[in-house]
């Protein structure tokens, strides 16, 4: 998941980007079970839940 790489490189960009936040929320709705834990963690860290 490239969003996790972005979080590592520039977490402030991910937090403040409306497009990135929207992508994370859309991903949360569509994610395969294999990646669900990673996406849920990202959602929590971005305080989107």
TrEMBL record:
Name this polypeptide is given: FXSXX-COOH protein
Native species: Streptomyces umbrinus
Lineage: Bacteria, Bacillati, Actinomycetota, Actinomycetes, Kitasatosporales
